[in-house]
Amino acid sequence: MMTNRTLPAKRSNVKMDATSPLGIAIRTARISKQIPQRVIAEALADRCGGEPTNVRVSGFELSKKLPSDAELMVIAQVLGLSVVSLREKREASREHYKATTKVLYEDQLARGNKQVGSRLKPRAAPAPAPPKAKAKLASVPALADLVEQIDEIAPMPADKAARKRWFQCVSVLSRIGAAS
To answer: By the 8 A CB rule, do 33 and 4 touch?
Structure first.
C-alpha cells in the first residue's frame, strides 16, 4: 500500500507551523514514517465517521482543533504512537489551542472575513420590569381547609375509586380558586 514516494514540500500558503505538543508529535511521527495526511484522514473517516479530508488532520497538527479520544486512538494506531502519551500532549495543548483560536479569529477580523460576534458586543442594560400585581393569598383557602369545607358539603366516599375522583375534584377547585 505504501510507496517509496516522498511527501510534497511544505506549501507556501500555510500560515502556521505545528507548535503545540500534540501537533508537533503528530506531524513529526507522520513525516518520519512518510505517511500522508490522506491516509490518516481515511482511517479517521472509517472508524470515527465524517469526511476523509486532509483538513481534519491538518487542523490537529496546526492546533486548530483538538481530537477526541476516539480520534486519538485512530491516530495512535496509524502512526504507531502511545495513546496515553497523545492524551497527555492533548491536555498540554489546550492553552495553545485557545491562543491559536484567538489569533486566527483576530486575523479574520483584520482581513474583514468575520464580524465581531454578538458575545463580544457590549449589551445594553435591560429595561426594568413593570411591577407585578400582588396576588390575594389571604382570600384563597389552603388545600387542607378546602378539603374540610367540601367534606362538610359532600362527604368523602368510602370506595377507593370514588375517593380518588373526589380528591381530583377538590384539587381542580383549589386550582380554580388560586387562579382567580
So the answer is: no
d(CA 146, CA 43): 69
Select from 3.30.200.20, 1.10.260.40, 1.10.10.10, 3.30.450.20 the CATH code of 21-111. Answer: 1.10.260.40
Helix (H) or strand (E) holding 177: helix 160-179
Query: How does pLDDT run across 69-124, given as a tens digit for each residue?
Result: 889 999 999 999 988 998 888 888 888 778 777 887 888 888 887 777 655 555 56
Please spell the DSSP secondary structure of 55-80, one letter per residue: HHHHHHHTTSS---HHHHHHHHHHHT
Tell me how far apart the alpha carbons of residues 111 and 38 are, in angstroms, rounded to a whole number: 30
Mean pLDDT of the chain: 78
| Rounded distance between C-alpha atoms, residue 31 and residue 18, angstroms | 12
Which amino acid would we find at residue 165? R
Predicted TM-score (pTM) of this structure: 0.50
